[in-house]
Design goal:
- The chain is an alpha/beta fold.
- The chain has two domains: 172 residues, Rossmann fold, CATH 3.40.50; 94 residues, Pantoate--beta-alanine Ligase, Chain: A,domain 2, CATH 3.30.1300.
- The protein is built from ten helices and nine strands.
- α6 packs across α7.
- The radius of gyration is 19 Å and the shape is globular.
């Protein structure tokens, strides 16, 4: 595995791989790698001859008051995990390498970024789409991999790639969960033991929503009320949103008569946790690709 923090070195390594006819898979991350990230790396390794991973805690996607300074950065551990996972190239740039001068250019995807997390993290998705565009330009992958846990982000990037005619296939892989259902996240480590136990209520609420739809409930407001009760009864928290939205437009739906994304964002202790499921009108799981 080659490790570098330099853009020119990445381009040189990728160019050599392409000259050998290798297919490039890319997994962009902010590090603190867990089994969710490793599942994306494994998928890239199955599809491609060369797997590139980036680790970059991107400052422009954090809004004021968020955890940019505290975000975990266990780089030595991440390097070892990447090596064991069979990564070909690990790109770990500094902020100065990625943003050497004032950033006058941003990439912005309208509509899809205006609901869910976009309502509570103004400028977040603009930071995500800008840095992902930069990373795509640096690595120039054939396929890039994202997890469904960040479903809105994945759908936004998929649309950005289509709208800008980027020659990149976007693959969205299923959420990887702990045994008790909690979606794996680098921010889970912020939780103490009691908060970690409480956080299981998020997936419980999503499972209840799925079962309500399977039992014939089609009104979003009834499902959201039930989910809210489950989460509030589990312990102290702050609910940013519980929403049921169209999987293509990310707009709220009142009546469930087609596939929907059931998504939530809840603050438990110091951690803001997100999770979701995607189901059809009968409550069957839907895989987004």
């Amino acid at each position: 595995m080659q490790v570098t923090g330099k853009i020119l070195e990445v381009r040189k390594i990728i160019s050599s791989a392409r000259a050998e006819g290798k297919r490039i898979g890319f997994v962009p991350t902010m590090g603190a790698l867990h089994e969710g990230h490793l599942s994306l790396i494994k998928a890239a390794g199955a599809d491609c001859d060369f797997v590139a991973v980036s680790i970059f805690v991107n400052p422009i996607q954090f809004v004021p008051g968020e955890d940019y300074e505290q975000y975990p950065r266990p780089i030595e551990d991440d390097i070892e995990k990447s090596r064991r996972a069979g990564v070909s190239l690990l790109f770990n740039p500094s902020v100065d390498e990625m943003y050497p001068q004032e950033q006058l250019t941003r990439v912005y995807v309208k509509k899809l970024t205006e609901n869910l997390c976009g309502r509570f993290r103004e400028g977040h998705f603009e930071g995500v789409t800008t840095v992902v565009t930069k990373l795509f330009n640096i690595v120039q992958p054939d396929i890039s991999y994202f997890g469904q846990k960040d479903a809105q982000q994945a759908l936004v990037i998929k649309r950005m790639v289509a709208d800008l005619n980027m020659p990149i296939e976007i693959k969205i892989r299923p959420t990887i969960r702990e045994r008790d259902g909690l979606a794996m996240s680098s921010r889970n480590q912020y939780l103490n033991e009691a908060q970690r136990k409480q956080a299981c209520c998020l997936y419980q609420a999503l499972c209840d929503a799925r079962e309500m739809i399977r039992s014939g409930e089609k009104k979003s407001e009834h499902i959201i009320k039930r989910m809210s009760d489950i989460i509030k009864n589990a312990g102290p928290c702050e609910i940013d949103y519980i929403s049921i939205v169209d999987t293509e437009t990310i707009e709220d739906v009142e009546q469930i008569n087609k596939p929907v994304l059931i998504a939530l964002a809840v603050k438990i202790g110091p951690a803001r946790l997100i999770d979701n499921v995607i189901v059809d009108s009968n409550g069957n799981d839907v895989i987004i690709t």
